[in-house]
Design a protein that fits this description.
The chain has 6 helices and 13 strands. It is an alpha/beta fold and 261 residues long. The strands form 4 sheets. A 6-stranded mixed sheet has the order 4-7-8-9-10-13, covered by helices on one side. It is globular and about 55 Å long.
Length: 261
């Protein structure tokens, strides 16, 4: 458990219509009870097999989410985007979003990971590769998708060996933007830091060096009382590594805009 220290920049009721959700894992700081109870049950959710079991299979029929799609590591799905032109569906090049599950581990490799598999204390987690691009037409196969902008979202993970597979899978493919989950989340608390379950500043820079994105934006570092590694630590580590020109820092409510090629 953790106590929320800062609220989101936008209240839940002020959000625009949500078309789909990417849920890295079924943990209350990512999918809290208020959000879960408020969402329409036919909202498409892309998540882990573990989270799907909680959102769909293990709920009463009247509470179950009906469109939950699970992706394991390096499994992909294509999210089509409908375009209306003069009242009819547009033909010709159409936008689409390709989502691929990326490796992630909320607990360190080794004995602790094995113990957690048995105890199920910390849920399994995904990262995501989100590619914004196009298909030549609505009837084209998913394999015809071409990427125009690639975003890597680390999810709640530590710097584990599984992540080294990402640059191998995306060799010669540019990652335009990386959203890195930081904070050095500790359990049971920063006052008793027995186990770190998200990246701290040092690991965040190591991930930048591994993925080599064009731009990195740090997120997930001060919302709750379980964070041990503040953003200032990351800023110092980034400058020390000579990566200062590759990072954008956003305050709550700020926006980062980009063009899809």
């Amino acid at each position: 458990t953790g106590e929320r220290k800062t609220n989101p920049a936008v209240d839940l009721e002020q959000l625009p219509r949500i078309d789909a959700v990417l849920l890295s894992h079924y943990h209350a700081d990512h999918f809290d009870e208020k959000v879960e109870s408020s969402l329409r049950r036919d909202l498409p959710i892309i998540t882990t097999p573990h989270a799907k079991s909680h959102l769909h299979e293990n709920k009463p029929a009247e509470e179950s989410f009906t469109q939950v799609f699970d992706l394991d590591f390096f499994e992909s799905c294509l999210v089509s985007i409908s375009q209306q032109t003069n009242g009819s569906v547009s033909e010709g090049r159409v936008p689409a979003v390709k989502v691929t599950g990326m490796p992630g581990k909320h607990v360190p490799d080794g004995a602790l990971s094995v113990a957690n598999d048995l105890l199920a204390a910390v849920p399994p987690t995904n990262g995501w590769m989100v590619e914004l691009g196009y298909k030549p037409n609505t009837s084209a196969p998913d394999s015809a998708f071409t990427n125009g902008y690639r975003i890597y979202i680390s999810g709640d993970t530590l710097m584990v060996d599984d992540l080294k597979e990402i640059p191998k899978q995306y060799a010669d493919k540019k990652v335009d933007l990386m959203l890195v989950h930081l904070g050095g989340t500790t359990i049971p608390s920063p006052k008793l830091p027995l186990l770190m379950v998200t990246m701290d500043a040092t690991q965040g820079v190591q991930l930048m060096q591994l993925i080599n994105p064009e731009v990195t934006i740090p997120i997930h570092y001060d919302d709750y009382d379980v964070f041990l590694s503040p953003l200032d630590d990351f800023k110092k580590a980034v400058e020390s590594a000579g990566w200062g020109d590759k990072v954008v820092y956003l305050d709550r409510g700020d926006q980062y805009r980009f063009n899809v090629g």
